[in-house]
Amino acid sequence: MKKIKMQLFGSFCLTSGTAVLGEEAICSNKITRMLAYLLIYRDCTLTHRQLIDVFWEDGARNPEGALRNLMYRIRNVLKILGDEKFICSMPGVYRWNPEIEVETDYEQFEKKAALLRLTEDDGRKEKLCRDIIDCYRGNVSAQIMDEPWILPKVTWYQSVYMDTVKELCKILERTERWEENEEICRQALTVDSLDENIHCSLIQSLYKQKKYNLALYQYEKANQLFYERMGIRNPENLWAVFQKMISETEECTADINKILSEESELENSQGVFFCNYQIFRQIYQVEVRRVHRLGITEFIILLTVQRVNRAWQSSAIDYGMIEGMDILEDAVRGILKTGDVAARYSQNQVILLLPACTYESGVRAAERIQKNFRGNIGNRKLKLTYELAELSAQK
What we know:
Layout: E1 3-7, E2 13-16, E3 19-22, H1 23-26, H2 29-40, E4 46-47, H3 48-55, H4 63-78, E5 87-90, E6 93-96, E7 101-104, H5 105-118, H6 122-135, H7 151-174, H8 178-189, H9 196-208, H10 212-230, H11 236-248, H12 251-258, E8 273-275, H13 277-294, E9 299-307, H14 319-335, E10 341-346, E11 349-354, H15 359-376, E12 382-390
Parallel strand pairs: 1-7, 8-10
Antiparallel strand pairs: 1-2, 2-3, 4-6, 5-6, 9-11, 9-12, 10-11
């Protein structure tokens, strides 16, 4: 008898020798789901009633007829793999033919995950971790993953994958293989972009490779993501990694200043550098010393978004204000130039640092931002005000 290989991760696929049956060839979500169910529970005899309860829970007019029709279609689709009798039927029951061996990626994943829990040697651990990560091509096929009968497995598989990545990161960090660790972390964040520990490991890897500007950019990007998705600013672990970066070496201040001249390494590198306020303060301190030493003029601008004719109730989430701040950030990014620095100062304020800028040009920049903001807020009852102060006058 043939041996069938089943791929569940990424996309559903069956192979037998050179024959391949994938989702495109199946052309039916219902067939894909039933076929996956039959294979996952291939050691069980499944009654008609069980299958109807799983796949026709919304109530079909003739569920027995619908089930027979679906099994007929599945048998025809499986002919791509050969003429064997893949599905056996007996009075009132169906099951996968037990004489046809099936090898699955998810069971390999489960076995290796179980072995990893029992392994203490770092070399063996690393090999198992890499095998598990390679096996996981993304979670269970999108055509199946929202089915109630597989949801617990979907959640568990993702959890095991992320835990495995963290285990591998520990090994790579101990052996100072920072470039490899960076690659692993970036891959994991495509699966779960809100895992704080993976963000921390990625930032540390960039920092250890002396990619200071990219590390700071990644910190700001992660911080913004947690704020937008979860309403959290400076998550504890992320903040601790940032503080460690700043305190570990005096070179940090110089490297932060270099961000403005090394933006080509960053995404969307042209234009204003939009950063976290803590990074802004570091740049600000450098600029204050430079202004006093050279006797030049620079200005900071404070932009404030306010409600019109209504007080903002801080006890509730003000979605209009959140949208307004996003519109303001877009305006700042679109108008300011390379060399300028911006940061969110508070939940309704943005602060700007404009090197080599006169008062008049600062006012013009602020008014252009104001005009852009007014043109994009739509019907939101918001207004934007600004204040200018000379950097050299700040203490």
